[in-house]
Specification:
The complex is a heterodimer of chains A (197) and B (197). Chain A is 23% helix and 27% strand. By secondary structure, chain A is an alpha+beta fold. Chain A has a domain at 72-196: Domain of unknown function DUF1214, C-terminal domain (Jelly Rolls). Chain B has 197 residues and is α+β, with helices and mostly antiparallel strands. Chain B has helices at residues 2-41, 52-58, 108-111, 129-134, 136-149, 177-185, and strands at 48-50, 66-74, 80-85, 91-97, 102-107, 115-122, 153-158, 162-170, 188-191. The longest helix of chain B has 40 residues, at 2-41. Classes of the chains: A alpha+beta (197), B alpha+beta (197).
Protein backbone atom coordinates (compact mmCIF):
# COMPACT_ATOMS: atom_id res chain seq x y z
CA UNK A 1 0.00 0.00 0.00
CA UNK A 2 1.39 3.40 -0.94
CA UNK A 3 1.99 5.94 1.78
CA UNK A 4 -0.70 8.29 0.51
CA UNK A 5 -3.30 5.51 0.52
CA UNK A 6 -2.32 4.61 4.07
CA UNK A 7 -2.63 8.26 5.08
CA UNK A 8 -6.06 8.50 3.44
CA UNK A 9 -7.16 5.39 5.32
CA UNK A 10 -6.08 6.85 8.65
CA UNK A 11 -7.83 10.08 7.79
CA UNK A 12 -11.03 8.20 6.97
CA UNK A 13 -10.80 6.22 10.20
CA UNK A 14 -10.31 9.42 12.14
CA UNK A 15 -13.23 11.12 10.41
CA UNK A 16 -15.46 8.13 11.13
CA UNK A 17 -14.33 8.21 14.76
CA UNK A 18 -15.22 11.90 15.10
CA UNK A 19 -18.59 11.52 13.37
CA UNK A 20 -19.57 8.41 15.34
CA UNK A 21 -18.26 9.86 18.64
CA UNK A 22 -20.07 13.18 18.28
CA UNK A 23 -23.13 11.29 17.05
CA UNK A 24 -23.16 9.15 20.18
CA UNK A 25 -22.73 12.28 22.30
CA UNK A 26 -25.54 14.13 20.52
CA UNK A 27 -27.99 11.23 20.59
CA UNK A 28 -27.43 10.43 24.26
CA UNK A 29 -27.74 14.12 25.23
CA UNK A 30 -30.96 14.35 23.24
CA UNK A 31 -32.32 11.27 24.99
CA UNK A 32 -31.25 12.24 28.50
CA UNK A 33 -31.84 15.99 28.37
CA UNK A 34 -34.71 16.51 25.93
CA UNK A 35 -36.72 13.40 26.82
CA UNK A 36 -35.23 12.67 30.23
CA UNK A 37 -35.18 9.44 32.16
CA UNK A 38 -36.38 8.22 35.53
CA UNK A 39 -35.80 9.53 38.26
CA UNK A 40 -35.03 12.97 36.70
CA UNK A 41 -38.41 12.81 34.97
CA UNK A 42 -41.60 10.99 35.94
CA UNK A 43 -44.19 9.95 33.37
CA UNK A 44 -47.77 10.00 34.62
CA UNK A 45 -50.62 9.09 32.29
CA UNK A 46 -48.70 10.34 29.23
CA UNK A 47 -47.67 13.61 30.96
CA UNK A 48 -44.10 14.29 32.03
CA UNK A 49 -43.10 15.81 35.34
CA UNK A 50 -39.58 16.92 36.37
CA UNK A 51 -39.57 16.86 40.20
CA UNK A 52 -36.33 18.86 40.51
CA UNK A 53 -37.38 21.76 38.26
CA UNK A 54 -35.86 25.12 39.33
CA UNK A 55 -34.34 23.60 42.47
CA UNK A 56 -30.83 24.71 43.50
CA UNK A 57 -30.22 21.00 44.21
CA UNK A 58 -31.40 19.89 40.75
CA UNK A 59 -29.46 17.11 39.02
CA UNK A 60 -27.43 18.14 35.92
CA UNK A 61 -30.00 16.63 33.51
CA UNK A 62 -32.94 18.58 34.94
CA UNK A 63 -30.79 21.70 34.95
CA UNK A 64 -29.73 21.18 31.31
CA UNK A 65 -33.32 20.42 30.27
CA UNK A 66 -34.77 23.67 31.62
CA UNK A 67 -31.73 25.78 30.72
CA UNK A 68 -32.02 24.59 27.11
CA UNK A 69 -35.12 26.75 26.70
CA UNK A 70 -34.35 29.32 29.39
CA UNK A 71 -37.12 28.45 31.82
CA UNK A 72 -37.41 30.28 35.12
CA UNK A 73 -39.51 27.64 36.79
CA UNK A 74 -41.11 27.16 40.16
CA UNK A 75 -40.17 24.53 42.69
CA UNK A 76 -42.73 21.86 43.31
CA UNK A 77 -43.98 23.24 46.62
CA UNK A 78 -45.02 26.39 44.75
CA UNK A 79 -46.42 24.76 41.61
CA UNK A 80 -46.45 21.40 39.84
CA UNK A 81 -46.00 21.40 36.08
CA UNK A 82 -46.99 18.53 33.81
CA UNK A 83 -46.19 18.65 30.11
CA UNK A 84 -47.23 16.51 27.20
CA UNK A 85 -46.57 16.43 23.47
CA UNK A 86 -48.85 13.44 22.88
CA UNK A 87 -52.46 12.38 23.29
CA UNK A 88 -53.58 9.60 25.62
CA UNK A 89 -53.04 6.98 22.91
CA UNK A 90 -49.42 8.07 22.53
CA UNK A 91 -49.78 9.82 19.16
CA UNK A 92 -48.03 13.23 18.83
CA UNK A 93 -50.29 16.26 19.30
CA UNK A 94 -51.05 17.90 15.97
CA UNK A 95 -52.55 21.39 15.64
CA UNK A 96 -54.51 20.20 12.61
CA UNK A 97 -56.58 17.80 14.79
CA UNK A 98 -59.38 18.23 17.32
CA UNK A 99 -58.85 16.90 20.85
CA UNK A 100 -60.99 16.69 23.95
CA UNK A 101 -59.13 17.18 27.23
CA UNK A 102 -61.20 15.90 30.12
CA UNK A 103 -60.69 15.22 33.78
CA UNK A 104 -61.94 15.77 37.29
CA UNK A 105 -61.49 19.07 39.06
CA UNK A 106 -58.04 19.36 40.62
CA UNK A 107 -57.22 20.58 44.12
CA UNK A 108 -54.67 23.32 44.76
CA UNK A 109 -54.98 27.07 44.85
CA UNK A 110 -55.67 27.25 41.11
CA UNK A 111 -54.69 25.28 38.03
CA UNK A 112 -54.63 25.85 34.32
CA UNK A 113 -53.96 24.15 31.00
CA UNK A 114 -52.16 26.11 28.29
CA UNK A 115 -51.13 25.25 24.73
CA UNK A 116 -47.73 26.11 23.24
CA UNK A 117 -45.92 25.79 19.94
CA UNK A 118 -43.11 23.22 19.83
CA UNK A 119 -40.65 26.09 20.52
CA UNK A 120 -42.63 26.92 23.71
CA UNK A 121 -44.14 30.18 22.50
CA UNK A 122 -47.87 30.74 22.87
CA UNK A 123 -49.88 29.79 19.80
CA UNK A 124 -51.02 33.00 18.07
CA UNK A 125 -54.75 32.94 17.33
CA UNK A 126 -57.44 35.54 16.50
CA UNK A 127 -59.44 34.69 19.65
CA UNK A 128 -56.31 35.52 21.70
CA UNK A 129 -57.01 32.58 23.98
CA UNK A 130 -54.14 30.39 25.11
CA UNK A 131 -55.44 28.61 28.19
CA UNK A 132 -58.28 27.73 30.54
CA UNK A 133 -57.96 27.90 34.29
CA UNK A 134 -59.87 26.57 37.28
CA UNK A 135 -61.72 29.89 37.62
CA UNK A 136 -62.74 30.67 34.05
CA UNK A 137 -63.62 27.33 32.51
CA UNK A 138 -67.19 26.16 32.15
CA UNK A 139 -67.65 22.98 34.18
CA UNK A 140 -69.83 19.93 33.72
CA UNK A 141 -72.64 19.48 36.30
CA UNK A 142 -70.44 17.06 38.30
CA UNK A 143 -67.58 19.58 38.54
CA UNK A 144 -65.39 17.87 35.96
CA UNK A 145 -64.24 19.70 32.85
CA UNK A 146 -63.96 19.29 29.06
CA UNK A 147 -61.70 21.48 26.96
CA UNK A 148 -61.85 21.23 23.17
CA UNK A 149 -58.54 21.91 21.45
CA UNK A 150 -59.14 22.63 17.78
CA UNK A 151 -58.20 24.98 14.95
CA UNK A 152 -61.93 25.56 14.30
CA UNK A 153 -64.42 27.17 16.74
CA UNK A 154 -66.40 24.92 19.09
CA UNK A 155 -69.01 25.69 21.73
CA UNK A 156 -67.91 25.37 25.37
CA UNK A 157 -64.28 25.59 26.45
CA UNK A 158 -62.63 26.04 23.07
CA UNK A 159 -58.84 26.30 23.16
CA UNK A 160 -57.80 27.46 19.68
CA UNK A 161 -54.59 26.26 18.02
CA UNK A 162 -53.05 27.04 14.63
CA UNK A 163 -53.66 24.76 11.70
CA UNK A 164 -50.37 22.92 11.39
CA UNK A 165 -47.42 21.58 13.33
CA UNK A 166 -46.98 19.86 16.66
CA UNK A 167 -47.93 21.46 19.95
CA UNK A 168 -47.47 20.97 23.66
CA UNK A 169 -49.85 21.18 26.61
CA UNK A 170 -48.79 22.38 30.03
CA UNK A 171 -50.83 21.71 33.16
CA UNK A 172 -49.88 23.92 36.12
CA UNK A 173 -51.21 23.29 39.63
CA UNK A 174 -50.39 26.21 41.93
CA UNK A 175 -49.95 25.56 45.64
CA UNK A 176 -50.53 21.82 45.22
CA UNK A 177 -51.63 19.64 48.15
CA UNK A 178 -48.79 17.81 49.91
CA UNK A 179 -49.78 14.33 48.72
CA UNK A 180 -49.41 15.46 45.07
CA UNK A 181 -45.83 16.45 45.79
CA UNK A 182 -44.85 13.34 47.70
CA UNK A 183 -46.58 11.05 45.22
CA UNK A 184 -47.14 12.76 41.84
CA UNK A 185 -48.54 9.49 40.45
CA UNK A 186 -51.75 10.23 42.44
CA UNK A 187 -52.43 13.42 40.44
CA UNK A 188 -55.55 12.72 38.32
CA UNK A 189 -53.98 14.11 35.13
CA UNK A 190 -56.47 14.92 32.35
CA UNK A 191 -57.07 12.56 29.43
CA UNK A 192 -56.47 13.82 25.91
CA UNK A 193 -58.60 12.11 23.28
CA UNK A 194 -58.27 12.73 19.56
CA UNK A 195 -61.70 13.32 18.04
CA UNK A 196 -60.88 14.03 14.41
CA UNK A 197 -58.15 15.19 12.09
CA UNK B 1 -10.47 -6.64 14.39
CA UNK B 2 -8.35 -5.17 17.19
CA UNK B 3 -8.12 -1.93 15.25
CA UNK B 4 -11.91 -1.71 14.81
CA UNK B 5 -12.36 -2.29 18.52
CA UNK B 6 -9.85 0.47 19.24
CA UNK B 7 -11.70 2.99 17.06
CA UNK B 8 -15.07 1.93 18.46
CA UNK B 9 -13.83 2.35 22.01
CA UNK B 10 -12.34 5.73 21.11
CA UNK B 11 -15.64 6.81 19.54
CA UNK B 12 -17.56 5.77 22.66
CA UNK B 13 -15.14 7.73 24.83
CA UNK B 14 -15.50 10.79 22.60
CA UNK B 15 -19.28 10.34 22.80
CA UNK B 16 -19.18 10.17 26.59
CA UNK B 17 -16.94 13.24 26.71
CA UNK B 18 -19.27 15.19 24.43
CA UNK B 19 -22.25 14.07 26.48
CA UNK B 20 -20.74 15.15 29.81
CA UNK B 21 -19.40 18.43 28.48
CA UNK B 22 -22.78 19.34 26.96
CA UNK B 23 -24.78 18.39 30.05
CA UNK B 24 -22.45 20.14 32.48
CA UNK B 25 -21.47 23.27 30.57
CA UNK B 26 -24.35 24.09 28.23
CA UNK B 27 -26.75 25.29 31.01
CA UNK B 28 -24.40 28.14 31.98
CA UNK B 29 -24.12 29.23 28.34
CA UNK B 30 -27.89 29.03 27.74
CA UNK B 31 -28.75 30.86 30.97
CA UNK B 32 -26.22 33.62 30.17
CA UNK B 33 -27.99 34.22 26.87
CA UNK B 34 -31.39 34.16 28.59
CA UNK B 35 -30.17 36.70 31.17
CA UNK B 36 -28.96 38.97 28.37
CA UNK B 37 -32.45 38.74 26.85
CA UNK B 38 -33.85 40.03 30.15
CA UNK B 39 -31.23 42.76 30.35
CA UNK B 40 -32.23 43.92 26.87
CA UNK B 41 -35.92 44.04 27.80
CA UNK B 42 -35.86 45.36 31.37
CA UNK B 43 -33.50 47.87 33.00
CA UNK B 44 -31.14 46.63 35.71
CA UNK B 45 -32.31 46.93 39.34
CA UNK B 46 -35.73 48.21 38.24
CA UNK B 47 -39.09 46.47 38.33
CA UNK B 48 -40.69 46.09 34.90
CA UNK B 49 -44.13 44.59 34.27
CA UNK B 50 -43.90 42.40 31.17
CA UNK B 51 -46.79 43.31 28.89
CA UNK B 52 -48.18 40.71 26.47
CA UNK B 53 -46.28 42.34 23.59
CA UNK B 54 -42.87 41.76 25.22
CA UNK B 55 -43.61 38.60 27.21
CA UNK B 56 -43.03 36.18 24.36
CA UNK B 57 -39.64 37.62 23.49
CA UNK B 58 -38.16 37.19 26.98
CA UNK B 59 -40.01 34.28 28.59
CA UNK B 60 -40.32 30.75 27.26
CA UNK B 61 -43.48 28.90 28.25
CA UNK B 62 -45.08 32.02 29.73
CA UNK B 63 -48.25 31.16 31.63
CA UNK B 64 -51.05 33.08 29.89
CA UNK B 65 -52.97 33.34 33.19
CA UNK B 66 -50.17 35.15 34.95
CA UNK B 67 -48.96 38.75 34.83
CA UNK B 68 -45.19 38.82 35.29
CA UNK B 69 -42.94 41.57 36.56
CA UNK B 70 -39.17 41.19 36.53
CA UNK B 71 -36.22 42.96 38.06
CA UNK B 72 -32.86 41.78 36.73
CA UNK B 73 -30.46 42.46 39.60
CA UNK B 74 -26.78 43.11 40.05
CA UNK B 75 -25.64 43.32 43.67
CA UNK B 76 -22.19 44.71 42.90
CA UNK B 77 -23.33 48.25 43.75
CA UNK B 78 -24.88 47.04 47.03
CA UNK B 79 -27.96 45.26 48.32
CA UNK B 80 -31.22 45.30 46.42
CA UNK B 81 -34.37 46.66 48.06
CA UNK B 82 -37.62 45.18 46.81
CA UNK B 83 -40.91 46.79 47.73
CA UNK B 84 -43.68 44.39 46.73
CA UNK B 85 -47.29 45.38 46.29
CA UNK B 86 -49.29 42.18 46.55
CA UNK B 87 -52.37 41.88 44.31
CA UNK B 88 -55.65 40.40 45.56
CA UNK B 89 -55.37 37.03 43.78
CA UNK B 90 -52.50 34.54 43.93
CA UNK B 91 -49.10 36.21 43.92
CA UNK B 92 -45.57 34.83 44.26
CA UNK B 93 -42.17 36.44 44.47
CA UNK B 94 -39.29 34.29 43.25
CA UNK B 95 -35.62 35.08 43.36
CA UNK B 96 -33.39 33.35 40.82
CA UNK B 97 -29.63 33.05 40.67
CA UNK B 98 -27.95 33.57 37.30
CA UNK B 99 -28.12 29.77 36.86
CA UNK B 100 -31.92 29.90 36.89
CA UNK B 101 -32.09 28.33 40.37
CA UNK B 102 -35.10 29.38 42.39
CA UNK B 103 -33.23 30.36 45.57
CA UNK B 104 -36.22 31.94 47.32
CA UNK B 105 -40.00 31.96 46.86
CA UNK B 106 -42.82 33.48 48.87
CA UNK B 107 -46.50 33.54 47.95
CA UNK B 108 -49.29 35.86 49.07
CA UNK B 109 -50.73 33.42 51.62
CA UNK B 110 -47.34 32.99 53.27
CA UNK B 111 -46.82 36.77 53.21
CA UNK B 112 -50.27 37.50 54.66
CA UNK B 113 -49.99 41.24 53.99
CA UNK B 114 -50.61 43.47 50.99
CA UNK B 115 -47.23 45.15 51.03
CA UNK B 116 -43.88 43.62 51.90
CA UNK B 117 -40.27 44.74 51.70
CA UNK B 118 -37.26 42.57 50.98
CA UNK B 119 -33.55 43.16 51.14
CA UNK B 120 -31.54 40.97 48.79
CA UNK B 121 -27.93 40.31 49.76
CA UNK B 122 -25.09 38.37 48.27
CA UNK B 123 -24.44 35.22 50.24
CA UNK B 124 -20.93 35.02 51.62
CA UNK B 125 -18.83 32.33 49.98
CA UNK B 126 -18.78 29.03 51.87
CA UNK B 127 -15.13 29.50 52.82
CA UNK B 128 -14.51 32.84 54.44
CA UNK B 129 -11.07 33.43 55.95
CA UNK B 130 -12.35 36.10 58.33
CA UNK B 131 -14.95 33.68 59.63
CA UNK B 132 -12.35 30.96 60.14
CA UNK B 133 -10.22 33.33 62.21
CA UNK B 134 -12.96 34.92 64.32
CA UNK B 135 -15.19 31.85 64.49
CA UNK B 136 -18.58 31.83 62.77
CA UNK B 137 -20.56 32.25 66.00
CA UNK B 138 -19.95 35.99 65.89
CA UNK B 139 -21.08 36.14 62.31
CA UNK B 140 -24.24 34.17 63.08
CA UNK B 141 -24.99 36.46 66.00
CA UNK B 142 -24.48 39.49 63.78
CA UNK B 143 -26.83 38.02 61.15
CA UNK B 144 -29.52 37.45 63.78
CA UNK B 145 -29.20 41.01 65.04
CA UNK B 146 -29.53 42.24 61.48
CA UNK B 147 -32.75 40.33 60.91
CA UNK B 148 -34.16 41.57 64.20
CA UNK B 149 -33.34 45.21 63.60
CA UNK B 150 -34.93 45.11 60.18
CA UNK B 151 -38.07 43.31 61.30
CA UNK B 152 -40.22 45.02 58.69
CA UNK B 153 -37.93 43.81 55.92
CA UNK B 154 -37.37 40.22 54.88
CA UNK B 155 -33.68 39.49 54.42
CA UNK B 156 -32.92 37.15 51.51
CA UNK B 157 -29.52 35.84 50.42
CA UNK B 158 -28.58 34.85 46.89
CA UNK B 159 -25.47 32.88 45.87
CA UNK B 160 -24.74 34.92 42.71
CA UNK B 161 -24.28 38.68 42.36
CA UNK B 162 -26.55 38.80 39.34
CA UNK B 163 -29.86 37.13 38.66
CA UNK B 164 -33.53 37.84 38.43
CA UNK B 165 -36.41 38.76 40.74
CA UNK B 166 -39.73 37.63 39.29
CA UNK B 167 -43.21 38.50 40.48
CA UNK B 168 -46.16 36.42 39.35
CA UNK B 169 -49.78 37.47 39.78
CA UNK B 170 -52.65 35.19 38.82
CA UNK B 171 -55.33 36.32 36.39
CA UNK B 172 -58.55 34.40 37.11
CA UNK B 173 -59.72 35.91 33.85
CA UNK B 174 -58.23 38.23 31.21
CA UNK B 175 -60.82 40.83 32.27
CA UNK B 176 -58.71 41.44 35.39
CA UNK B 177 -55.52 42.14 33.43
CA UNK B 178 -55.56 45.94 33.77
CA UNK B 179 -56.36 45.79 37.51
CA UNK B 180 -53.74 43.16 38.36
CA UNK B 181 -51.12 44.88 36.17
CA UNK B 182 -51.74 48.15 37.99
CA UNK B 183 -51.37 46.47 41.40
CA UNK B 184 -48.18 44.72 40.33
CA UNK B 185 -46.75 47.90 38.82
CA UNK B 186 -46.86 49.52 42.27
CA UNK B 187 -43.95 47.22 43.21
CA UNK B 188 -40.42 48.53 42.96
CA UNK B 189 -36.86 47.40 43.10
CA UNK B 190 -33.81 49.59 43.71
CA UNK B 191 -30.22 49.32 44.74
CA UNK B 192 -29.54 50.31 48.35
CA UNK B 193 -26.11 51.72 47.60
CA UNK B 194 -22.90 50.49 49.20
CA UNK B 195 -23.50 48.55 52.40
CA UNK B 196 -22.99 50.49 55.63
CA UNK B 197 -19.62 49.78 57.29
Amino acid sequence: MSRSRKFAKHLLNFAAFVVVGLGIGYLTVDLAVTRGFDPAVKRIGGWTFWPQEASPEADPYTRAHFASFGKFGLMQFEALEFRTEQDSSGAPLDQHCTYVISGPSLPGRWWNIAAYEADRRLIANPANRHSFNSENLIREPDGSFRIIVSPTPHPGNWLPVGDRGPFRLLLTIADPPGNFRTNPATVPVPRIQRESC
Amino acid sequence: MGRLLFWLLAAILLGAGTHLATVLFSPAVSMASVMSRFHAAAPLNRMTVLGPEILGTVLREPNPDIVYAVCPYDLQAGDLLIDASIPEFYWALSIYSNRGDNVYTLNDQQAGVSRLRFRLQLEKPAFDLQEVITGDEDAEEAAEVQIQTKDDTVLVKTPTADGLVMLRAFLPDQAYRARVTEQLAASSCATAGPPAP
